[in-house]
Amino acid sequence: MNFTVGFKPLLGDAHSMDNLEKQLICPICLEMFSKPVVILPCQHNLCRKCANDVFQASNPLWQSRSSTTVSSGGRFRCPSCRHEVVLDRHGVYGLQRNLLVENIIDIYKQESSRPLHSKAEQHLMCEEHEDEKINIYCLSCEVPTCSLCKVFGAHKDCEVAPLPTIYKRQKVSSSRGSKHGGVGVGTQDGISNCSLLLHLTSKAGRSGLKSQLRREELSSRPGPPALSASLCVWQSELSDGIAMLVAGNDRVQAVITQMEEVCQTIEENSRRQKQLLNQRFEGLCAVLEERKGELLQALAREQEEKLQRVRGLIRQYGDHLEASSKLVESAIQSMEEPQMALYLQQAKELINKVGTMSKVELAGRPEPGYERMDQFTVSVEHVAEMLRTIDFQPGTSGEEEDEEVAVEGEEGNAGPEE
């Protein structure tokens, strides 16, 4: 039997909202649960803050998470059932969060914020008879249907019952199975609240019947024996499904926690490798700077040696030029001497000096290309190419390097034995 689901949650009903709100009250602060909500081993729920207050009151010597001293754990009693809760060294932060209850609180707050007058009740409509409402339940096929389907449709030979009666008996049967207060999700004791939670969590299908027809004008006509068996099956399936859902949420939360730890490890490893990379390149830069200084010093020494030699030759040639110029002036003055005897006396001496001066050999000039400094050209192309090939080495880690650094540090700290 196919049918169209056209309904909105019936939380707009004031009575339903009040009932749900009672189930979402923390037994400690007597307020609606505040996130994060933790679930105890006894399946009762508490605000983490309230749970921490109770835990701290029961364990006054236990150190907080921010303390430098790590405690071995502690224990306290559940305020609802007095069941003893044993915690590990993480305290209440080691308890699992009840994400389902947190989602229900969010939906409840959203529904509470909507105006009641805008929530007009809608109905399940039969897909085969589009103008007919779903108003009966087929006990043989266990599906809701309409009156036309019973009269001359697919369910004309089936046993049916009014839909309000089915829903009322299911609701009453569920409430009898409740033993604990609060939202004890995941246990048979919390099945009375599960029918109410279905209004928030279920969709079209087999559970759509339970989440749609919550009306105050329910009929009190008793249903056939087959109905009780069906309700028991539904309760069992619903309880098992909720338990599986809670277990799945715990696994997801564990995976999320593990992934958060992985993220922290990735960030720490990346920071460490960046530091090592900077140190390596700073070391390379230091080697380059040291070598550059050595080459510059060699170039400066060669420059000074050549300059000293050339400047010495310049001074030598300058002295020779000055002496030759003075000799030329003396010879010219002697040629202009009017007295013959004095001229003859000076001329012979000047002739000897000129001959001697002309025969003087000066130091040779620098060889051609002496001024060139091409021998100090540095080829860095191959080094630059090697630097461009620097890359990460796969399969290696900084553990060996850390060990080497630690060994060197120990050797440096160890003094000579007396």
TrEMBL record:
<dbReference type="InterPro" id="IPR027370">
    <property type="entry name" value="Znf-RING_euk"/>
</dbReference>
<dbReference type="GO" id="GO:0030154">
    <property type="term" value="P:cell differentiation"/>
</dbReference>
<dbReference type="InterPro" id="IPR000315">
    <property type="entry name" value="Znf_B-box"/>
</dbReference>
<keyword id="KW-0217">Developmental protein</keyword>
<comment type="function">
    <text>May bind and stabilize microtubules during myotubes formation.</text>
</comment>
<dbReference type="InterPro" id="IPR033492">
    <property type="entry name" value="Trim54_Bbox2_Zfn"/>
</dbReference>
<dbReference type="InterPro" id="IPR001841">
    <property type="entry name" value="Znf_RING"/>
</dbReference>
<feature type="coiled-coil region">
    <location>
        <begin position="249"/>
        <end position="316"/>
    </location>
</feature>
<feature type="domain" description="COS">
    <location>
        <begin position="335"/>
        <end position="393"/>
    </location>
</feature>
<dbReference type="InterPro" id="IPR017903">
    <property type="entry name" value="COS_domain"/>
</dbReference>
<keyword id="KW-0175">Coiled coil</keyword>
<feature type="domain" description="B box-type">
    <location>
        <begin position="121"/>
        <end position="163"/>
    </location>
</feature>
<dbReference type="GO" id="GO:0005737">
    <property type="term" value="C:cytoplasm"/>
</dbReference>
<keyword id="KW-0862">Zinc</keyword>
<keyword id="KW-0221">Differentiation</keyword>
<dbReference type="InterPro" id="IPR050617">
    <property type="entry name" value="E3_ligase_FN3/SPRY"/>
</dbReference>
<dbReference type="InterPro" id="IPR017907">
    <property type="entry name" value="Znf_RING_CS"/>
</dbReference>
<feature type="domain" description="RING-type">
    <location>
        <begin position="26"/>
        <end position="82"/>
    </location>
</feature>
<keyword id="KW-0863">Zinc-finger</keyword>
<protein>
    <recommendedName>
        <fullName>Tripartite motif-containing protein 54</fullName>
        <ecNumber>2.3.2.27</ecNumber>
    </recommendedName>
</protein>
<keyword id="KW-0479">Metal-binding</keyword>
<dbReference type="InterPro" id="IPR013083">
    <property type="entry name" value="Znf_RING/FYVE/PHD"/>
</dbReference>
<dbReference type="GO" id="GO:0005634">
    <property type="term" value="C:nucleus"/>
</dbReference>
<keyword id="KW-0808">Transferase</keyword>
<dbReference type="GO" id="GO:0005874">
    <property type="term" value="C:microtubule"/>
</dbReference>
<feature type="compositionally biased region" description="Acidic residues">
    <location>
        <begin position="398"/>
        <end position="418"/>
    </location>
</feature>
<dbReference type="GO" id="GO:0070507">
    <property type="term" value="P:regulation of microtubule cytoskeleton organization"/>
</dbReference>
<dbReference type="Pfam" id="PF00643">
    <property type="entry name" value="zf-B_box"/>
</dbReference>
<keyword id="KW-0206">Cytoskeleton</keyword>
<feature type="region of interest" description="Disordered">
    <location>
        <begin position="390"/>
        <end position="418"/>
    </location>
</feature>
<keyword id="KW-0963">Cytoplasm</keyword>
<keyword id="KW-0539">Nucleus</keyword>
<keyword id="KW-0514">Muscle protein</keyword>
<dbReference type="GO" id="GO:0061630">
    <property type="term" value="F:ubiquitin protein ligase activity"/>
</dbReference>
<dbReference type="Pfam" id="PF13445">
    <property type="entry name" value="zf-RING_UBOX"/>
</dbReference>
<keyword id="KW-0493">Microtubule</keyword>
<dbReference type="InterPro" id="IPR042752">
    <property type="entry name" value="TRIM54_RING-HC"/>
</dbReference>
<dbReference type="GO" id="GO:0008270">
    <property type="term" value="F:zinc ion binding"/>
</dbReference>
